[in-house]
Amino acid sequence: MARTTDGDGAPVPQRLLAAATRLFAERGYDRTSVQEIVEAAGVTKGALYHYFGSKEDLLHEVYARVLRVQQQRLDAYADADEPVERRLRGAAADVVVTTIENLDDADIFFRSMHHLSPEKHKQVRAERRRYHERFRALVEEGQQAGVFSSATPADLVVDYHFGSIHHLSTWYRPDGPLTKQQVADHLADLLLRALRP
Question: Whole-model pTM?
């Protein structure tokens, strides 16, 4: 049985994910070997295969862990007992912040998702669709209530917002002029302004 933690007490799955994320970001998914990942994590191949089964499973988990956090946070915003414009703005800013906090993960995934098997690719698309549908439901709720303009279809509004998020890794720098929260606030405000009746 593989150990749950390494000598320093860090969980082995976390060490493997951290090593894989760093190596995938530096070298690319296809140019990183399983041996390099386990050496960087300080574990055996047996430990990797115990927790993940394959390098592809690691790639999937790099993205899935971020999406799980984002989905939980979106659900909390969507279910809150607040006006829809406040819930949407909170969710719109939060997805920017969590994406910036995990820029390597998101960038790796979008550059490497074509390496996933058709089954895993389908699974990821379903997970992303669930997130986008929940976000779109907030837009539609506000449109139906007359709080938001319905001049632009909700799908297009959501695609516009997420299009800007998917490009964050091409320009955002932690040492740049804007903090992650400032970027999040600007993009969320742009979204709300676009939805004004």
Answer: 0.86
